[in-house]
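User: Here's a structure from my thesis project, written as structure tokens. My advisor, Dr. K., wants to see whether a designed sequence matches the one we expressed. Can you design one independently, without my sequence as a hint?
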């Protein structure tokens, strides 16, 4: 037994409750090392000693390049739980608890792993609708000026105090509203808009006024009509909150520039010296050394209160359904804890999504965000489907490594994407090969988590640089065949969303082919993919039975049951 690989941690992704009668326990072991893994559990407060022990066999749930991950669901029947593991390998049987190995379990239950009390308050409270969401991301300036039209005309509008707001391509909130039927027809039930609040730039990540709609995009009444139109169609609307930094014309920063050390807003930012220098290397903290995005001090109670009130205002007055939160990992945890409590008190099913490009576990422990943008999955998809840097076996191992990173409801809430407003278009990454885009999109829509598509991907938009991948929506001509494909992928997901979220597993992988299934209670599907230029035949044993699947080059087959 490779003891050095055995790992378990309580109150983490390895031990969590989803309901009073549903506890999930996981254990990590070296790849292909354990022959069996058994959970032994009992009532931590049972009056007699030794306590009664119930056994449950754990199943191999995921594997990556180095490790196997075993999992079991139990109904403990009690609120105070203790447990240990019985592990067998190569004729050796050991018991594992207190992070140590034992030849026989001791009677002292205090040494076992413990769930001190199964509290509903500690369970992940991800909104149920979000785990069923299929998201369409819109960059408002680039999407539509009206129905099936984008003007491509730049504009400058002024706020009452004279501050200038700019647009580049003429998209508006009205344009989004007038195309809701189009978005719904593709199978999307949620829209995520990048920032819409008054700002200098077309991208709107340099906020001037958090309480005003950018006049280039429309009015507050336009937003009300958009939210109403979404809700009438059973769709949700998520806005982008930029609370890590403001724009240079935000009132607090303007005062700081004008008054220096005497500014009452000095503690709203991180000045290093005075007077403030807004040159190419500013003397104050900002987002990525971009002087037009000075960093807000959310550790200052006054600043924090202002921004939390912003988050509450747009929910209370416009009934938006949640926030995607920009540069979330550069904002302090305490701010997000308070933000979540107050937002959820106002709207219990509002979703909170953090923009975090790497490991987001410290923000996803049930007290800050429900979800994070899963760029780690994006990069794995890029390396396999677009660039061919990974073979199928290594790709699947990376995917499973990401799946085991989070508790199950958090895993089911991760915002999965193949591209966005911040990275090149996927079609460009794969050299214009629509077959690769189809395969990647199919994987995205049939993987645990929440799939998101960037506007225009369904119509074959491309672009490597920012101005290109944020280009105007192509409304010309009839719908692209990709649109039908996306619609069918969304319909497949809706039919089997529970199987995808709870029963996804790998079946096969080699150099350029893979197969996986999503099955729950005998219903689901098997998907086989060939990501090569030569035909393949794959032999599988899955929910559909023993099956021989013939695949053309760069193709997939779906078997539903």
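Assistant: Designed independently from the structure alone:
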């Amino acid at each position: 037994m490779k003891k050095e690989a055995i790992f378990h941690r309580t109150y983490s992704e390895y031990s969590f409750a989803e309901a009073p009668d549903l506890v999930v326990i996981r254990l990590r072991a070296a790849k292909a090392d354990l022959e069996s893994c058994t959970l032994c559990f009992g009532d931590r407060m049972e009056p007699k000693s030794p306590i009664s022990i119930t056994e449950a066999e754990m199943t191999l749930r995921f594997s990556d390049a180095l490790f196997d991950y075993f999992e079991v669901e139990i109904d403990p029947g009690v609120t105070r739980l203790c447990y240990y593991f019985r592990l067998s390998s190569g004729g050796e049987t050991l018991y594992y608890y207190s992070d140590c190995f034992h030849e026989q379990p001791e009677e002292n239950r205090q040494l076992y792993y413990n769930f001190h009390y199964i509290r509903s308050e500690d369970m992940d409270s991800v909104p149920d609708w979000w785990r069923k969401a299929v998201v369409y991301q819109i960059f408002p300036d680039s999407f539509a000026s009206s129905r099936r039209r984008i003007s491509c005309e730049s504009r400058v509008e002024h706020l009452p105090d004279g501050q200038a707001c700019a647009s580049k391509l003429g998209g508006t909130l009205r344009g989004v509203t007038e195309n809701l039927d189009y978005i719904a027809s593709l199978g999307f039930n949620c829209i995520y808009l990048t920032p819409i609040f008054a700002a200098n730039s077309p991208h709107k990540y340099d906020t001037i006024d958090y309480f005003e709609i950018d006049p280039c995009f429309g009015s507050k009444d336009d937003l009300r009509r958009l939210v109403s139109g979404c809700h009438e169609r059973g769709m949700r609307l998520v806005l982008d909150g930029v609370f890590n930094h403001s724009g240079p014309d935000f009132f607090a920063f303007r005062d700081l520039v004008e008054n220096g050390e005497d500014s009452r807003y000095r503690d709203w930012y991180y000045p290093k010296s005075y007077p403030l220098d807004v040159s190419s290397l500013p003397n104050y903290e900002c987002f990525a050394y971009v002087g037009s995005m000075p960093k807000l001090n959310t550790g200052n109670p006054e600043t924090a209160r202002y921004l939390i009130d912003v988050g509450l205002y747009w929910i209370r007055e416009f009934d938006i359904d949640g926030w995607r939160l920009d540069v979330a990992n550069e904002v302090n945890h305490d701010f997000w804890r308070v933000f979540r409590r107050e937002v959820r008190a106002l709207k219990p099913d509002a979703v909170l999504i953090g923009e975090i490009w790497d490991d987001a576990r410290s923000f996803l422990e049930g007290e800050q965000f429900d979800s994070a943008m899963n760029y780690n999955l994006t990069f794995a998809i890029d390396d396999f489907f677009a660039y061919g840097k990974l073979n199928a076996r290594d790709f699947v191992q990376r995917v499973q490594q990401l799946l085991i990173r989070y508790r199950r409801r958090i895993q089911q809430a991760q915002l999965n994407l193949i591209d966005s407003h911040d990275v090149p278009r996927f079609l460009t990454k794969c050299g214009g090969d629509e077959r690769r885009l189809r395969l990647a999109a199919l994987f995205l829509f049939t993987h645990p988590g929440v799939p998101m598509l960037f506007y225009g991907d369904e119509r074959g938009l491309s672009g490597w640089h920012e101005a290109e991948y944020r280009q105007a929506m192509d409304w010309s001509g009839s719908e692209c065949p990709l649109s039908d494909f996306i619609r069918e992928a969304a319909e497949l997901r809706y039919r089997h969303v529970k199987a995808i979220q709870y029963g996804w597993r790998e079946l096969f992988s080699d150099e350029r082919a893979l197969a996986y299934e999503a099955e729950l209670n005998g219903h689901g599907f098997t998907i086989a993919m060939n990501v090569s230029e030569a035909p393949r035949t794959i032999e599988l044993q899955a929910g559909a039975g023993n099956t021989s699947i013939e695949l053309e080059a760069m193709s997939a087959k779906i078997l539903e049951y």
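When you compare it with your expressed construct, this may help: The longest strand covers residues 22-30.
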